[in-house]
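Give me the 3D structure for Magnesium transporter.
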Amino acid sequence: MARTRLYRDGSLVRENFPVHEISEHLADPAALVWLDLFRPTPQKLARVGQEFGLHELALEDAATAGQRPKIDRYRSHEFFSGYAVRIDPHGGRLTTTEIAAFLTRRALITVRQDDGFDIDDVVTRWDDSPDLAGQGVGFLLHGLLDHLVDGHFQAVQQLDDAIEELEELLFAEDPGEIRQVQRDAYELRKSLVGLRRVVLPMREVINTLMRPGTGVVTDRLMPYYQDIYDHVLRAAEWTESLRDMVASVMETNLSIQSNRMNLIMKKVTSWAAIIAVPTAITGYYGQNLPYPGFSDQAGLISSSVLIVGITLLLYVLFRRNDWL
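Predicted structure for Magnesium transporter (324 residues):
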């Protein structure tokens, strides 16, 4: 499956034309072509590489999953690798979708290995900025990067909201909610680590594209790329602060659990001390030796008074010291 677009002199003239016609269109110096490949076979990717003169290492990176977000420069083209992200609203789980792109002087070739990337949103962004279509391949790349960075920013915001909800459950008394805090905190921490690996390298990607001499970003596109760079910086800084927040939530949860355990231990110890009083007194009076009140009703009364009196005294003292 492949999608194509043809721009000429800054105007969209054709869509979804056959791939074999691309060479004819590229013969026109005023033409700008977009080719989107969805799950291409190695043979098809190799043919595209021959058609556009793509480097074999770039083709290998496009076919291999798990690439780091980057921009590699070759003699006749650039290779870009990035990730779109999604956050599960119920569990905070992070899902990433990799996309690769080749940038030639008059063509953008995108390679997707799954349907998790919303390419239609990228096309919509291009259609919403027709006045920039005359800026060449930098215009097409801007729509792609804008979609990716907006997704990163939205994911960070969703994680921030999830952490705030988690903080409200920190002091819950229900055991089920306490376990939920522990599970969600662990899942959010994993998601933030994964998001950090995606967001942080994008700073260098955008910065490289904006350097003079790349030929991708024109003077008119520079403010738009600067806006993307600002969003990348904000998303990266926000991600770092959220990592600290999650660590703080986990540490606070451990402290709360430790305090609750100490309180339970105090209560158990206090009740053990109270129970030890009647045990000691009845054990003393149960010995086979004469004592005051031995074989007399007065002994029973005195022992009962001692049990009740000392037990009540300990109970009052423990309550006053907040041990019960």
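The beta strands are 2-8, 11-15, 31-38, 70-73, 78-87, 94-103, 107-112. Let me know if you want a second pass.
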